[in-house]
């Protein structure tokens, strides 16, 4: 039996009850990476959101089939107006590799990075280069239906031919045409028309033959082709970052609905951006971190996932290393408590399970769910009940709460976690006398504490007495 869920549909700008095409089974297509560079943690926030959606649906009893595309055909840096240089080919030139080698390398890196933050693999990872015939088939259909036209080997989509163009981004066709920037392409009927198939120049490396001559696909047609090839001409949810709303997803709607004659996607869901010092984290701006960099600084990658759970997926999230250090500390303490409580006596669990389900079923309200986690940890419930609930909820949270304390740092002696927490609060209050006294007390227990810009770090000296992993005293 599956439970109901409400999601915010960008298309209709409101929360709606999710009604899958096939009750109890949900198909999800998620916009994935263009594999020309490493993914940064801002990208990973969008993929964590999609992972939380899949986990929540499964937790609520649905079967989920997710596809996430791998864009291994580079697209232009100014996609709206078909100008700029192909990102894949820029990377290939700079790294002295072929476009295929670039794609393979960064695809592997992407899959490793999402595993670090416990994003479960999708059922399908379609690669754009494997769907070129499908793209050409859709383009030919759009030409035949009067939605596209050919000029000198390049195929353009005629946005004026699709009356609903702009409905996702809440723009009219007239507004979009009037707002076109720069010198218009004289070959286009309208400045806002976008490319479905691009004629290949002499220096182009990734080239395919087509009915319109040698060339390569536009960015937008790739997802229309792959999503409908995998799920047919109707599927339930399409996810992506808020920056995909226009032009990418707007173009997808125009292509897919014009080609099939009806609405293809039931619900459009978009995650908002990760901010660093008030600015969007982006490769182009150079203000980004890879998850491996956070790991190299001594942080658990899942501390970043913990941080992502603190904000609603539709709101911006500010990122700092100080916040990450705090999330790392709290996550470590939670695992220690779960280990302490694991085999302690069980007992009544109140309404916690129902409240957790209600929070996540309400458009993925994970801030409410995490507030409930904190309430549970400090509640009077039996220790065994706390552990059981936390481990059950972790099927959705994905924080690996059942992991034993890190062997690298060592297992904390009994009472050390509380002293570390007190010392961190003393440091925040600039009570350095108390902080130093607690450091000395911890040293006597065999816990070596050092301070850094990211917060205090600790390591258990050899010979220290570890905390018990079985049984517990029910401390909150």
Account of the 3D structure:
The chain is 40% helix and 15% strand. The protein is an alpha/beta fold and 476 residues long. It is built from 15 helices and 15 strands. The protein is elongated. A hairpin with a 2-residue loop joins strand 11 (274-276) and strand 12. It has two domains: 6-271, 3-Layer(aba) Sandwich (Rossmann fold), CATH 3.40.50; 279-460, no CATH class. Helix 2 crosses helix 3 (99-116), helix 6 (219-231) crosses helix 7 and helix 9 crosses helix 10 (321-341). It has a four-stranded parallel beta sheet, with helices on both faces. Strands 5-6-7-8 form a four-stranded antiparallel beta sheet. The chain has a three-stranded mixed beta sheet with strand order 12-11-13. The model is unreliable at 76-84 and 462-476 (pLDDT under 50).
Which fold name is given in CATH as the topology of the largest domain? Rossmann fold
How big is the Rg? 26 Å
Helical content, roughly? 40-55%
The span between the termini is 34 Å
Within the largest sheet, what's the order of strands? 4-3-9-10
Please write the string of helix (H) and strand (E) elements: EEEHEHHHEEHEEHEHEEEHHEHHHHHHEE
CATH C-level category of the largest domain? Alpha Beta
Shape call: elongated
The assigned CATH architecture of the largest domain is 3-Layer(aba) Sandwich
* CATH superfamily caption of the largest domain: HUPs
Main sheet overview: 4 strands, parallel
List keywords for this structure.
476 residues, alpha/beta, four-stranded parallel β-sheet, four-stranded antiparallel β-sheet, 15 helices, 15 strands
């Amino acid at each position: 039996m599956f439970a109901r869920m409400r999601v915010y549909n960008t298309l209709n700008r409101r929360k709606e009850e999710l009604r899958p095409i096939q009750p109890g089974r949900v198909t999800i297509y998620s916009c994935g990476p263009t594999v020309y560079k490493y993914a940064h943690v801002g990208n990973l926030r969008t993929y964590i959101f999609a992972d939380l959606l899949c986990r929540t649906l499964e937790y609520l009893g649905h079967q989920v089939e997710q596809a996430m595309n791998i864009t291994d055909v580079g697209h232009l840096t100014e996609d709206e107006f078909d100008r700029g240089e192909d990102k894949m080919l820029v990377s290939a030139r700079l790294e002295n590799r072929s476009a295929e080698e670039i794609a393979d390398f960064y695809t592997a890196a992407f899959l490793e990075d999402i595993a670090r933050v416990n994003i479960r693999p999708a059922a399908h990872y379609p690669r754009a280069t494997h769907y070129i015939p499908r793209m050409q088939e859709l383009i030919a259909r759009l030409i035949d239906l009067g939605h596209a036209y050919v000029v000198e080997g390049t195929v353009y989509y005629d946005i004026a031919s699709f009356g609903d163009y702009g409905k996702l981004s809440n723009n009219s066709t007239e507004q979009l045409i009037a707002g076109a920037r720069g010198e218009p392409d004289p070959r286009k009927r309208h400045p806002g028309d976008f490319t479905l198939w691009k004629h290949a120049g002499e220096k182009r490396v990734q080239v395919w033959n087509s009915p319109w001559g040698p060339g390569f696909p536009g960015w937008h047609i790739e997802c229309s082709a792959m999503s409908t090839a995998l799920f047919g001409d109707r599927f339930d949810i399409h996810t992506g970052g808020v920056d995909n709303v226009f032009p990418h997803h707007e173009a997808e709607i125009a292509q897919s609905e014009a080609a099939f004659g009806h609405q293809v996607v039931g619900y459009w869901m978009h995650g908002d951006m990760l901010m660093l010092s008030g600015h969007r984290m982006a490769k182009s701006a150079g203000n980004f971190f890879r998850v491996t960099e956070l790991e190299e600084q001594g942080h658990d990658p899942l501390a970043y996932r913990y941080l992502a759970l603190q904000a609603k997926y539709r709101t911006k999230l500010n990122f700092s290393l100080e916040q990450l250090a705090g999330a790392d500390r709290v996550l470590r303490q939670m695992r220690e408590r779960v280990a302490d409580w694991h085999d302690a006596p069980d007992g009544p669990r109140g309404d916690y399970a129902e409240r957790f389900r209600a929070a996540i079923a309400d458009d993925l309200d994970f801030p409410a769910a995490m507030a409930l986690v904190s309430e549970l940890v400090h509640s009077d419930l039996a220790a065994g009940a706390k552990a059981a609930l936390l481990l059950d909820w972790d099927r959705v949270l994905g924080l690996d709460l059942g992991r034993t304390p890190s062997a690298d740092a060592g297992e904390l002696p009994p009472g050390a976690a509380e002293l570390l927490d007190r010392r961190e609060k003393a440091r925040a209050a600039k009570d350095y006398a108390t902080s130093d006294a607690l450091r000395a007390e911890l040293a006597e227990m065999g816990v070596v504490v050092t301070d850094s810009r990211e917060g205090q770090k600790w390591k258990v000296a050899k010979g220290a007495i570890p905390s018990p992993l079985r049984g517990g005293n029910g401390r909150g």
